[in-house]
Amino acid sequence: MASGALARLLVGRRAATAPLLARPFAAKARASRRPQEPDFPSEDEDDFAGGEVAAGAPTEGISKPLAEVLRELGKRVPEALVKTRVEDGFSMKYIPWHIVNKILNVHAPEWSGDVRSIVYSSDGKSVSVIYRVTLHGTDAEIYREATGTASVDDTGYGDPVQKAEAMAFRRACARLGLGLHLYHEDMS
After folding, report:
1. Edge-to-edge strands of the sheet including 141-151?
2. What is 3-187's CATH number, 3.30.420.130, 3.30.390.80, 1.10.3720.10, 3.40.50.1580?
3. Which has the minimum average pLDDT: 83-87, 120-124, 134-138?
């Protein structure tokens, strides 16, 4: 997906009286050689939606109560942003780390993240990363940590440390509600 298309997806709907600052979710793609972008649900549905963005800067989450930030992150992520990977014969849905990062930038621009530790197993066959994501609201801040583990021999999706970090980052964000619906779908 082109970066411009992703930005339009994350920006969301504009107010009816506001100047044209961003394209709404349901906007059609421009006529080009790229495949047409999918239509997305309206804001009335319980799906991921953005807010207004002034002058091109992602400022929606600044000066918002933490409950409002968490409510936005808890909405469904459009299927067009969800990827599927097959490992060991199992199909898994996930949101790529860079998409999760952009969603956080739009809805919680005052977030921060830290790699808390990187530990190799005693036999040297795997590496585990602990990652912390912190959200800052006007009334409080909250953090969640998660781990990700990758085999040192598995370089199919890049460097094992990077793979473990991306996994831990996505899981920490899921503990804050972002993409959590994907885990519930796996259970059914």
Report:
1. 112-120, 126-136, 141-151
2. 3.30.390.80
3. 83-87
